[in-house]
Predict the structure.
Amino acid sequence: MDSRQDAGADPVAQTKALTISGTLQRNLDEKKIAAARARLFEKHAGLKIIFNDPDTEIMIVKIRSVQLLDGITNAYFEEVIRKRF
């Protein structure tokens, strides 16, 4: 995400950007989908209607790093340590 287009007169001074790097896994087998849904239902019971919608796709996102930019000189970078949930 990047705010430069909406920054107005001084886009450099108002720059805010979030960059997330990682991998995306789609087209999961039914066993992985069922396990993911069970975990999602357990943690977010109020969203069950969304998770059961036929247009909803379950994906696995593994985040490797996150970078937050606030202006052109204030940056924060973090590599994500792999954890099993």
